[in-house]
Design goal:
With 89 residues, this protein is an all-alpha fold. The chain contains 4 helices and no strands. It has helices spanning 7-15, 36-56, 62-70, 76-86. The N and C termini lie far apart (40 Å).
Length: 89
Amino acid sequence: GIKASPPMLAQAVAQHHERRDGRGFPFQLEAGQITGIAEIIGISDEFIRLLVKSKTDRRIHPLQEMKQKFYDRFSVGIVDAFNRIFLIK
């Protein structure tokens, strides 16, 4: 159950809406304060949101939107890993 979950899991869930520029929530954390796991969940959450939105709005191109609007909100390593997974040609 939840009580038996590792503390880092709870921390990642609490931080997954945080962004490196301090505009996230609930704590307005900045670069260096957000765990890598939280960033992985966060970038995945943004991408899934765009994928869902693109189903009803064909003007939205999720990968382009990620690059234009969201990459600067995540650490370089997280963005590089995202690109390796989703931009394989």
